[in-house]
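Data deposition worksheet. Section B asks for the primary sequence of the deposited chain exactly as it was used as input, without tags or linkers unless they were present during the calculation. Section C holds the resulting structure in token form. Section D is free text for depositor observations; keep each observation to a single sentence. Incomplete worksheets are returned to the depositor.
Section A, Depositor: J.P.
Section B:
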Amino acid sequence: MARLTITLADRMHRALKEAAARQNRSMAAIVEESLVLRGIQPLDSARAIVAKARANSALNSDDAMAVAVVETRRYREGK
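Section C:
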């Protein structure tokens, strides 16, 4: 497992630490979940999603990728 050092404002660090304690989870688990919710995932995962969508549709690979890009942008913008 890779390690990462980040710098947070004191208030944010305290809030993260308190949330972890309340939820009986690690701060790392909360940060990782937040990244996933923001759509941060390896490129291979994104390609797998596109391949699955294409297999269930009549779209060719270029059209499937175009739809995936649009949907990803909408998701990240909260629309």
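Section D:
The chain has four helices and no strands.
The chain has a mean pLDDT of 86.
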